[in-house]
Amino acid sequence: MPQVEAILEEAESESLSYAKLNSLVNAIHSTEFQAIRDKVLAKSEFVRRKIYGGLVVSMAPVEVTNRCASDCNFCGWRSDNNEMRRLSLDERLIVVQVEYLSRRVSSTSNLLVAMM
Ligand code: SF4
């Protein structure tokens, strides 16, 4: 739990590395999961309000592939769906998507692009 506390403290001032985010995700296997979950949710709420206040922020994910190792039952992209044709965008097509989204966003809005 001390490691989680340190990571959450760091999250107040900077983006977390993938390794640190992974540590939080792996807390799901911890016997202290419920307490850790509550702390992560509280810190997420704090950081969100610090950055965005009470605004509702929309995101435009750029999904670069439909290949997935998981098997969520509700999702067509699940790995055991053998009928799904799998695609991945190359760098050129990623740029095309980002440029398209940039044109769709009004000049008074910020574009927050998340690579998924
Ligand atoms: S929701 Fe779909 S894409 Fe996301 S992890 Fe589950 S199977 Fe993969």
Which properties best describe this structure?
4 helices; 46% helix; 116 residues; 5% strand; mainly alpha; two-stranded parallel ribbon; binds iron/sulfur cluster; extended
Question: What does this entry look like structurally?
Answer:
The protein is mainly alpha-helical and 116 residues long. It folds into two domains: 2-52, no CATH class; 60-115, no CATH class. Helices cover 46% and strands 5% of the residues. It is built from four helices and two strands. The chain has helices at 2-11, 18-26, 33-52, 91-104, and strands spanning 60-62, 113-115. A two-stranded parallel ribbon has the order 1-2. The chain is extended. 2% of the residues are buried. Iron/sulfur cluster binds at residues 68, 70, 72, 75, 77-78. Iron/sulfur cluster is lined by residues 68, 70, 72, 75, 77-78.
Question: Outline, from the CA principal axes?
Answer: extended
Terminal Cα span:
29 Å
Spatial sequence of strands, sheet with the most strands? 1-2
Question: Portion of residues in helices?
Answer: 40-55%
Arithmetic mean of pLDDT: 86
Ligands:
iron/sulfur cluster
- State the order of secondary-structure elements, H for helix, E for strand: HHHEHE
What's the domain count? 2
SS elements, strand count: 2
| Stretches with pLDDT under 50, minimum 5 residues | none
Rg (C-alpha, Å) = 18 Å
Q: Which sheet architecture does the biggest sheet show? A: 2 strands, parallel
Q: Quickly give the structural class.
A: mainly alpha
